[in-house]
Amino acid sequence: MRRFSVFLVFFLLLGLASSKSAAANAVPRQVLFQMEDPRGDDRGPGTYVYPKGPVFDPRHGLYDLTTFRVEVDDSSYYFYFTFAEKLSNPWGAPEGFSHQRIALYIDSQPNQGRSETWREGAYVDFDPRHGWEYFIDVTGWHKGAVYYWNQRKTEPGRRQGLLFRRATDGKTVEAVIPREALDEHPETWYYYVLIGSQDPIGPDGWRPVLAKATEWQFGGGTDTNLDPNVLDVLAPAAGENSQSSQLGSYSVEKQRLAVVKPVHPEQPVSIKKYTWYDRLVLAVREKGNAILKKYPWNIYFPVYVAAILAFLILLLLIGFNLANWRRRRK
User: Fold this and answer.
1) CA nearest 246: which of 256, 232, 257, 260?
2) The pLDDT of residue 272 is above 90
3) What pLDDT, in 10s, does the model give residues 101-157?
4) Burial of 16 (0-12, 13-18, 19+ CB in 10 A)
5) Phi/psi of residue 166, nearest 5 degrees
6) Within 13 Å and on the Cβ side, how many CA atoms surround 297?
7) What is the mean pLDDT of the chain?
8) What is the spatial distance between Cα 49 and Cα 59, in angstroms, rounded to a whole number?
9) Were both Cys, which of 5, 70, 101, 149 would link to 198 (CB 3.0–4.6 Å)?
10) When comparing pLDDT for 281 and 291, which is higher?
11) HSE-up of 55 (CA within 13 Å, CB side)?
12) What is the distance between the alpha carbons of residues 131 and 150, in angstroms, rounded to a whole number?
């Protein structure tokens, strides 16, 4: 009887240890920011037209950002960019998307950062009150990286631990960035989201916008390096900060680039802190839900009753043996 009880205690402790290990991964993802973008606005300042080539069919929606969302868990930040049309992959990028050129700039600290893009290509500037500290280059062919405002342009970006892929819904690009690559205060972040078209021979990988559309280039621009090569930005639908106002603020006469404004949560969200007990409760709840889903209560009711009785008997045996042990000690 004594050996049997020792084994029972051992397995109970083993179960607790397993639960503690599971608790480390039980923290649910927390949504830090989400914003909808107007549909049908992948026309830059409103004048741009798609290239004539069939690879750009249906010639609308491929670059039309509809939702931007940011999440976090214990290990990573998750950035989601959802588009109006399914993400086609005509050139076979391993990440699952070939058309979209996504540039995410984050302003995380006041009174520092850059107000120009990492390299010339998008042909926009940023609000000087909100210079960027992080640039997440979301692109295909293993070129995605994180760049920092205070590093030299000749230095490579961080690629270790990063993941870029097409999500299962077929319309969303997902960027997974380790938390140590960015700072721990997303409640201070302002976001610039720029959408263009990938072009391996374009300036910094951006497909140019010309005055007239060709088979491979967009039309509706000015044949200069002053009109943006940006087709969509995350912006409100109307007002002085609308997309057309921002991307249309360039001037050929004054040799001035368009200035883009960032977006920011109306109610900033800090990362939740979880105690060990919180994590254990979440782990047990997650495990319990998984068991109930696999073995429904209404079908396996006798099994659950037997398991509960066995557990109660286990507790009684442990209590009985502890009581005996204490009597012998006296």
Assistant:
1) 260
2) no
3) 999 999 999 889 999 999 999 999 999 999 999 999 999 888 999 999 999 989 999
4) exposed
5) -80, 130
6) 4
7) 87
8) 8
9) 101
10) 291
11) 15
12) 12
Residues, the chain: 330
3-state secondary structure of 60: coil
pLDDT of residue 288: 65
Q: 17 pLDDT exceeds 60?
A: no
Q: What is the dihedral angle through the alpha carbons of 283, 285, 291, 297, rounded to the nearest 10 degrees? A: 170
Which of these, 123, 92, 112, lies nearest to 190 by C-alpha position? 112
Share of the chain above pLDDT 90, in %: 69
So what's the architecture of 30-260 in CATH? Sandwich (2.60)
Burial call 110-140: b when 16+ CB within 10 Å, e when fewer: eeebbbebbeebbbbbbbeebbbbbbbbbbb
Token pair, residue 74, equals 């214990």
- Tell me how many degrees the CA angle 240-34-102 measures, rounded to the nearest 5: 75
**pTM greater than 0.85 (yes/no):** no
- CA-angle at 259, arms to 253 and 262, nearest 5°: 170
- Give the pairing of strands 134-138 and 100-107: antiparallel
At residue 9, the pLDDT reads 46
The pLDDT score that the predictor gives to residue 8 is 46
Helices (H), the chain: 2-23, 243-247, 276-294, 301-329
Whole-angstrom distance, CA of residue 28 vs CA of residue 83: 25
Residue 72, strand partner residues? 30, 77
Domain with CATH 2.60.40.1190 in the chain: 30-260
Angle, alpha carbons 309-313-314 (nearest 5°): 115
Half-sphere exposure of 66 (CA within 13 A, CB side): 12
